[in-house]
Specification:
heterodimer, A: 203 residues, mainly alpha, 9 helices, 2 strands, 65% helix, globular, B: 178 residues, alpha+beta, 5-stranded antiparallel sheet, 21% strand
């Protein structure tokens, strides 16, 4: 029993690669596909979603002893939407340029499956600090994938990464534009998923 | 306390705490958000009519007079929005009293531009809108017989900007010239 109990460190690390929410568990795909049209947008989305994920994990863990199982979902949704609204106001007030870029996808963090999923699957049954680590790990995993996808799509479709020019002028005059469209997102996540499967099965 | 009462009570407490927290955050951020909006409008107006010190809204959200500090009118700013690929493409056009275009600004995402990132959204870039400086009301894309180079892959957006600029010039003409 004691030997099988996962270590604190593993709470942090499983979310990054081994159980990467988006790439392995395949949840939270909507923001992954929609906001990765450039590296900067992807990073902005990751930061906003990470804020909500970590804090809602902590808050859900804090209230778990007072919440009966039958009403846990409504309570989680209230907690999550509260944090989403807070980050929405805060971005509007202090980071208007980032808010401008993310637009409707900030309020849509409410329906990000990763956040409700971690509150339900982890925070409801674990302590506050462990839930914080789990939220942080999953945030890092989400950020890693989003920034990777944003960078690759921006690189192929525009020829830049984080606005930095990385390709010769002849490429930028006729880039692979489709990478910035929805099919490009599906195409790329399919390739990444295939790589992960091959990598994991290859052992 | 039976479990049903506790169920209702715990939901009530959660909602109260959430509502209180949100009202606090809202009260703190509201003035900042309002200020950001005013600053954004003013800086956009100043970008297209740099010589003006103050602006007076003549038609709500579509026409402003630009004035010097003394109150002398030195130009007007017109906002137009022709249909692009994803919705109207808002364009701010600043004109001096002689009707020359002194500045153009294609709205960014926050101001309502819903074009495709990487394509139509590039209409906000200087290399595109600079072509319109000094244009008259016959302005059009090269494809439509004019002189403006469209953004590659975003003809519809480019055309919406060109038509918006032409509309702004016509509006200026009907507004300032008797």
């Amino acid at each position: 029993m004691i030997a099988k109990k996962p270590s604190r460190l593993s709470y942090l690390t499983t979310g990054i690669i081994k159980e990467n929410p988006t790439l392995i568990l395949m949840i939270g795909l909507c923001p992954t596909l929609a906001t990765t049209t450039s590296a900067r947008d992807a990073l902005g989305m990751s930061v906003a979603a990470s804020f909500v994920l970590i804090l809602s994990n902590v808050a859900s863990s804090l209230v778990r002893r007072f919440v009966q199982p039958s009403i846990r979902i409504p309570i989680f949704i209230i907690i999550i939407s509260t944090f989403v609204t807070i980050i929405d106001y805060a971005l509007q007030a202090y980071q208007p340029s980032l808010y401008r870029v993310l637009g409707v996808f900030v309020p849509l963090i409410v329906v990000n499956c990763i956040i409700l999923g971690r509150a339900e699957a982890f925070a409801y049954g674990h302590g506050v600090f462990d839930s914080f680590l789990d939220g942080l790990g999953n945030s890092l995993g989400f950020t890693l994938l989003l920034v990777t996808m944003g960078s690759v799509r921006e690189f192929f479709a525009v020829g830049t990464v984080f606005g930095k020019v990385l390709t010769p002028a002849w490429y930028r005059s006729a880039p692979m534009l489709f990478m910035i469209f929805p099919p490009g997102a599906f195409f790329l996540i399919g390739i990444l998923k295939a790589l992960v499967v091959k990598f994991k099965l290859g052992k | 306390m039976n479990s049903r009462t506790w169920m209702v009570l715990s939901l009530l407490i959660t909602c109260l705490v959430a509502g209180f927290a949100l009202s606090e955050v809202y009260a703190v951020t509201k003035p900042k958000v309002e200020q950001q909006r005013i600053d954004a409008t003013n800086s956009a107006l100043r970008q297209v009519l740099p010589t003006a010190q103050t602006f007076r809204e003549v038609e709500p959200d579509s026409l402003w007079y630009g004035m010097e500090a003394s109150g002398t009118k030195i130009g007007i700013v017109v906002r137009s929005g022709r249909r692009g690929y994803g919705g109207p493409v808002p364009v701010l056009v600043g004109l001096d009293l002689a009707g020359r275009i002194v500045g153009i600004k294609v709205a960014s995402g926050a101001e309502g531009l819903k074009e495709t990132p990487g394509l139509g959204l590039n209409a906000t870039e200087e290399v595109f809108w600079k072509q319109f400086l000094g244009a008259d009301s016959t302005v059009a894309l090269r494809k439509d017989g004019g002189t403006i180079d469209a953004i590659s892959g975003a003809t519809i957006t480019s055309r919406a900007v060109a038509r918006g600029v032409a509309e702004a010039i016509r509006k200026y003409a009907s507004h300032l010239k008797p």
